[in-house]
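Collaborator request, handled under Task 6.
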Amino acid sequence: MIDKNIDMTSLSLNTVEIPTANANARTIVALKKDGGHVTGYQLSDGQVVNKDMAVALARQGEIAGVGIAHRDGSEYLKSIPDGTESNNLSHLPSV
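Structure tokens returned to the collaborator:
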């Protein structure tokens, strides 16, 4: 039974938007961290971008294999589940 009196604005929902990658899209090969927190990503062409730039690039189809997750008013990249753990962002090395 669903409680119709729940205030939905107080719930923290995590949704993922999966953009279509361009044919020449780069991939994420490493994470840039500060104090254990991801602050950016190294791309397959060697470029290192911060989280906001990575989200913008992914949204434009410039980064393959990721979705854009939304939580508590912020956006970040998340691996698209494909059954292979070795290519998950959490398994990538840090730079």
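The cover message to the collaborator said: "Residues 51-59 form the longest helix (9 residues). The CA atoms of residues 43 and 49 lie 8 Å apart. Please let us know whether this matches your experimental observations."
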